Amino acid sequence: MPVPKSTVENSPRKLLRDVVLEKMLAAIQDGTLQAGERLNDDELVAWLGVSRTPIREAIAKLVDYGLVEMEANRYTRIATPTAEQFDEALQVLTGFAELATRWALPKLDDAAASDLLDILEDLRAHADAEDLAVNEDIRRYVVAVTREADNALLLSMSATLIPRVQFLALTEGRFVFWDVKHAVDPLVAAVKRRDGEAGSAVIRSLGTTMAEHLAALRQAS
Question: Which residues touch 217 (CB under 8 Å, ≥6 apart)?
Answer without folding.
Answer: 174, 175
